[in-house]
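For the sake of clarity, the format in which proteins appear in this thesis is described at this point. The fold follows as a row of integers, each naming the local backbone shape at the matching residue. One such record is shown here in full, so that the layout can be seen directly:
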Amino acid sequence: MIWKNSMAIALLAHLLVLSSPLAAQNAETCEVEIKEPRTNQDVTLQGMIKVSAEIPTGDHLWVFVRPVYTYRTQEKWWPQGEPIQIDAAKEEWEHPATFGSPGQNFGHPFDVIAAIFGPQEHAQLKKLQENADLSKNYQPITMPVAVCASRMVTVTKRTD
């Protein structure tokens, strides 16, 4: 009986990982890594995210940030503006990111992730970003299924 329960738990855990929005994989090589900031690094209100990636043809690279305390358990993220403009001659990019609000969130941890999306998910993200830019109402979103994603980096906001 214990063995059956253990197997059921292991199977459920495996299925949860496979159904994660960040678990999808493309047959073409897809790799993405956040080079800066590093985990446990201090950040300010505005920062640059340095990302290296191998991006499958036709896919798009996006950066996301979220405050740990309120949104990690909800799986909500803030896209950081437009997708990164891809230059085929480069494998490393920088993209601006915002950590919290001006004058707030000091000492609070933030998660950062970079992810590569296929054309359909990219179009969905682009439309959400365009609507947010028009309304100036930036709300967190549930990240669509990614082709691949970086490891999550957790940083701490210290100043504006």
In short: Strands lie at 31-36, 42-44, 46-54, 60-67, 76-79, 92-98, 109-117, 141-142, 148-149, 153-159. The first strand starts at residue 31 and ends at 36. Confidence is low (pLDDT under 50) at residues 1-27. Residues 42 and 114 are 18 Å apart (CA to CA).
